[in-house]
């Protein structure tokens, strides 16, 4: 059985809950870095027909596909989703907008070109918004699409976020089943640059079948290799989402989410090597069994330090962290290569 078929078989047993198509899948506010300073953010996950790749099986860790709409939202639905999202930023004088779709914002089957333009025009005309980020797979980053987007955004900065996950084609194919190559990403990043926009690269720490040490090395190497094409890195810590291939491994004791000590080490090493590149990580679900975790005592404190680093870019925030479990983590790094994928500790 291929990895894609294994993922698809799991997907076929899940039910997508019916939900209103004029309401986004999720909206939240937060903070990010803009021109070296902290800025409020409004993040929305638009409900669209969803990721074409995920519908055919797709990525081993991805549960976002279950957020998509059962019937494709109309133009009016998508515009209503934007209006609802913007109400959440009513109290902000200035904020950055991040748009995800559980797929690709630039895929015209999810968001038709006219709707895409009207969404970006609305954001470009809003003087409170200095920057808009949209996420997409690389195959949708084309010259004509970029021209359209830049045209309606005017002076508003534009960033394209791409889930490269790793610089290794082998890991992206055999652990993640991502369905594109490093060169596809490079093509997209060069297109983004040609049009005066910036690229944010999402990496994935510890996809399945990698030991803790291999996962650490993979992230350090990925930042090294992709730094030339990336204005910002955001390192996602693999968590166990429902209805995914990763969940099926986790239920059998064959997968453990990454240790928080591992991302601390990755951030220290990569920041030292690339002091001028923004490298961030949001430890979603930190401290839970399905999320990245150390021991119960220190997980939340270490996760807070990771969030603080992401905003300050100062590795000094890690200086005073310590816990007995760091010795266990060091042992895991040493021994995990020999367990053939079975998790050593919870
Ligand atoms: S991770 Fe992205 S590309 Fe992969 S299935 Fe999910 S939405 Fe699609
Ligand atoms: Zn601990």
Any descriptors?
346 residues; globular; alpha/beta; 38% helix; 8 strands; binds zinc ion; binds iron/sulfur cluster; single chain; eight-stranded mixed β-sheet; TIM Barrel
CATH level-1 class: Alpha Beta
CATH topology annotation = TIM Barrel
Q: Approximately how much beta-strand content do the residues carry?
A: 15-25%
Total DSSP E strands: 8
Decide which structural class fits the backbone: alpha/beta
Give the end-to-end Cα distance, rounded to a whole number of Å.
Answer: 28 Å
Biggest sheet overview: 8 strands, mixed
Average pLDDT score: 95
**CATH architectural designation:** Alpha-Beta Barrel
Q: What is the CATH superfamily classification?
A: Aldolase class I
Number of domains: 1
Helix content: 25-40%
In brief:
The protein is of the alpha/beta class and 346 residues long. The chain has helices spanning 3-12, 52-55, 75-87, 113-125, 143-153, 169-176, 182-194, 212-226, 245-251, 260-273, 299-312, 325-335; strands spanning 26-34, 37-45, 95-100, 131-135, 157-165, 198-205, 232-237, 278-280.
């Amino acid at each position: 059985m291929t990895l894609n078929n294994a993922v698809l078989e799991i997907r076929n047993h899940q039910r997508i809950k019916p939900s209103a198509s004029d309401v986004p899948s999720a909206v939240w506010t937060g903070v990010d870095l803009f021109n070296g300073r902290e800025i409020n953010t409004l993040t929305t996950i638009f409900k669209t027909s969803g990721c074409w790749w995920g519908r055919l099986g797709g990525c081993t860790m991805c549960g976002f596909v279950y957020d998509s709409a059962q019937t494709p939202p109309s133009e009016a639905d998508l515009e209503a989703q934007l209006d609802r999202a913007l109400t959440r930023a009513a109290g902000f004088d200035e904020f950055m907008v991040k748009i995800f779709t559980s797929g690709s914002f630039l895929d015209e089957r999810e968001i038709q070109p006219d709707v895409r333009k009207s969404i970006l025009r609305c954001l470009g005309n809003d003087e409170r918004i200095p920057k808009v980020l949209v996420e997409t797979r690389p195959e949708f980053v084309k010259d004509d699409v970029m021209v359209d987007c830049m045209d309606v955004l005017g002076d508003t900065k534009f960033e394209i976020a791409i889930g490269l996950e790793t610089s290794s084609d082998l890991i992206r194919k055999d652990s993640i089943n991502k369905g594109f190559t490093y060169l596809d990403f490079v093509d997209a990043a060069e297109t983004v640059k040609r049009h005066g926009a910036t690229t944010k690269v999402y990496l994935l720490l510890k996809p399945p079948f990698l030991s803790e040490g291999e996962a650490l090395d993979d992230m350090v190497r990925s930042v090294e290799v992709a730094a030339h094409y990336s204005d910002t890195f955001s390192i996602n810590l693999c968590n166990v989402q429902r209805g995914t291939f990763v969940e099926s491994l986790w239920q059998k004791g064959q997968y453990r989410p990454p240790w928080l000590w591992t991302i601390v080490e990755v951030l220290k090493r990569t920041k030292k090597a690339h002091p001028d590149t923004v490298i961030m990580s949001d430890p979603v679900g930190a401290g839970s069994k399905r999320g990245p975790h150390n021991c119960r005592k220190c997980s939340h404190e270490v996760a807070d330090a990771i969030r603080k680093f992401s905003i300050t870019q100062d590795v000094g925030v890690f200086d005073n962290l310590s816990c007995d479990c760091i010795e266990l983590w060091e042992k895991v790094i040493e021994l995990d290569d020999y367990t053939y994928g079975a998790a050593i500790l919870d």
